[in-house]
Amino acid sequence: MPIYEYRCQDCGTKFERLIRRSEDVSELSCPNCGEKRLATELSTFAPQMGGRKDASLPPCAQSGTCPTPGLCGRN
Known about the structure:
Elements: E1 3-8, E2 14-18, H1 23-26, E3 38-41
């Protein structure tokens, strides 16, 4: 069940929704103004670092880009 990001084309509000069935998309409306003119936004992956701290692995950048692709989230 993926989470999709949307932007309302009327008021500009950005929001996320968990889409369980394809029929759920037709029922979507803006939580701010209630309009149904929505644009799908591109999502960025932001790994959450936690647990054991390993000094040998560099930290991931807060911007969602990683200086060492493939190693983020492995500590």
